[in-house]
Design goal:
Chain A: Keywords: Signal. The complex is a heterodimer of chains A (456) and B (69). Chain A is built from three helices and 24 strands. Chain A has 456 residues and is mainly beta. Chain A is elongated. Classes of the chains: A mainly beta (456), B mainly alpha (69).
Chain lengths: 456, 69
Amino acid sequence: MQLKNKQIGKRLTLATSALLGSLQAQAADYWEVSSALLMYSEADDRVQAVEPVLNLSRQFDDESSINVRVIYDALTGSSPNGAMPASVAQTFTSASAAARIEQAEEDDDEEELEKYGDRGSYTIAPGDLPLDPSFEDNRTVLSLGWTRPLSNGYTMNLGGAYSSEGDFTSFSVNGALARDFNNKATTVSLGLNLEADSINPNGGVPTALTMYGAGNTDGSDDTKQVVDLMLGVTQVMNRRWLMQFNLGLSQSSGYQNDPYKILTVVNDGNLIVNPDDPESYLYLFENRPEDRQKMSFFWQNKVAIGADDVIDVGYRYMTDDWSVNSHTLDLTYHWQISEGLYLEPHYRYYRQSAADFYTPFLNAGSEVEVVGSSVTALVDEASSDPRLGAFSADTMGLKVGLALGSSSELSLRYEVYQQHDDNSLKAVAAGSHLDGMSQFAELSASWVQLGYTFRW
Amino acid sequence: MLKTTLVVLAVVGLCGCSTVKPWERDLLAKPQMALDSDPLQTAFEDHIYFSKEASSGGRGFGGGGCGCN
């Protein structure tokens, strides 16, 4: 019983650790090794990713613990460039591919040239969603966590993470202090995370709301800083019910744009020939506010059913000063079929409203002034990034877990994700290039996750 | 929003005098009752949804960031 008491104490402490996105060290005197492989795939030849993860954690005699995690992420495929589908063919020159080709020519790298040679510019057929086929990146993440009990029921948690991609680097440090009350039935925690990002887009940082293709840049790189504060309460409600409640505040400042996203500019629904290049049409680079404040409310319940089954119900509400409000409901049932076998059906519902500067395209006259070869945006911010649009999404999945002996487990999970457009249509003139074209690309994706955990 | 927060905190506070004795915590100690019973799965999901939706966080800090073009 003492052991059980200690274990639940640890779990509550770990609930706090979860605040830091760090550890789940659960046992003494050995390393717990968790490994997993994610294979993620989007429909219509969009993004494909392969992501292996290795996590090592160890608990020491003084009940302190450390956690080390390494993630590698290989991404390929096509990503929407932000332009609208139209009833005529559209040719784009990929800034990212063009920069890579230029670099490869400088380095005399024939292998790279061959890879990108035919993808420097791409043409999208009438009616098709403009996808940039040169999307390719690798991401490596290293994160560390350290938890240590202090006196008087306090626990301290410190951590850090470093993440690097071809055009993006992120560094973060975090700390949290938790305190147990009521014989460890209640844990209150407060955590702080500081993140510094550096963005160096292929081809430089495009000047916001200027013509795509003109090549105007504001230097080669930019930065972003994020501060997150989180207050958490974990409560044992009764013998079968554990609850967690988190309140999160986040302040992000700096470069928030997606440097590869553009917006179509139309005149009464018709594409406008680029004043500088008669072979292409007029598009502008997007622009977002430099600051973003978010607040989130997260409530999770774990309820034991019978001897081994568990219902997990989570709800999150998020709101920010870009007018995005979202609701997320997450349901999982842990069905223990036998001692060594379980199934976990899962359903997630998500719904968000659009950012106030989200728009599928820009209208010449009211939103962009086009006079000869002079193009001036009349709006301060605009983005057609579908992530900022209004949509709902369903995720359904099933996980199967198999115990291999007393200290190792193999699991396989399959999930399917589908977005549904909730945006109101922006008016277009009948018979124009944009008439009848989809204004929001609903994403369909699926992923398989293979996991293996053992003690060493 | 703030009101909701205060109400929930008050409810949690009232339930603070939990009568669950240590020897009644057998169910709560099971791995499937952990609030984050598969942290790697949570990390994958956080990354996927961060890349495709405008919301993130709630459960914890992401850590590591993402360009996510």
